[in-house]
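Q: My labmate handed me this sequence with no annotations at all. I'd like to see what the chain might look like in three dimensions before we decide whether it's worth expressing. Could you predict it?
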Amino acid sequence: MVLTLKKGRYKARFAETQDDILAAQRLRYLVFRDQAAVIGVDEDRFDDLCRHVLVEDVQSGKLVCCFRLLPLASGRDIETCYSAQYYELSALKDFDGPMVEMGRFCIHPAWQDPDILRVAWGAMARYVDEQGVEMLFGCSSFKGTSEAAYEDAFCVLKDKHLGPKCWLPRVKAPRVFPFARKLRFAKPDLKSAMRAMPPLLKTYLLMGGWVSDHAVVDGDMNTLHVFTGLEIRAIPPARARLLRAVAG
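A: Here is what I predict for the chain of 248 residues:
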């Protein structure tokens, strides 16, 4: 499919050349590797399997956001995805519908305009509709590996957003924070929780998304991340209309 979406000062499109992909990999390095003084490349073996989406400032052509998409025909292919390196996902093998993994989602740290996220999700909504995707999933990351810094956020996830038992991932990574168990009696400060919640994860949750009961401690990426799933049919109708309005 061809993906071109322009809203206001931003446009979203698929990467078309190796230079496009390299630009995305450099933005990922800046965001995930925290090396602002160094120009580097964040790449892995999944890049060749994915479609890469770029969100650019129309006037300057500056790349302000990127992410990649890995389509799966159904849950039977779940072991081929990036997330399967960190989560035991055998429960999702029974999901009998098209799926897509969204990964390496990042926004340039110098750009804080909320319209960037809206355009990114509008592009995702168009892709989901045109490809008949029934589940969107991926890893949602908290910056750093300090569990205490995000305790309130993890409490909210534990209280309101754990995935259904039929799909819930099990532990696979060597280092995890089993927040649903460790924080089972804790009560969150809601304002603190919302401040600490990553924007991508907030959007997933607003659409009816769910998370794993543990976070993976990823020393390589310097993140804590939770597996995040969203069944498309579970998106509230009002939210779906908003997304499709952006998607055009």
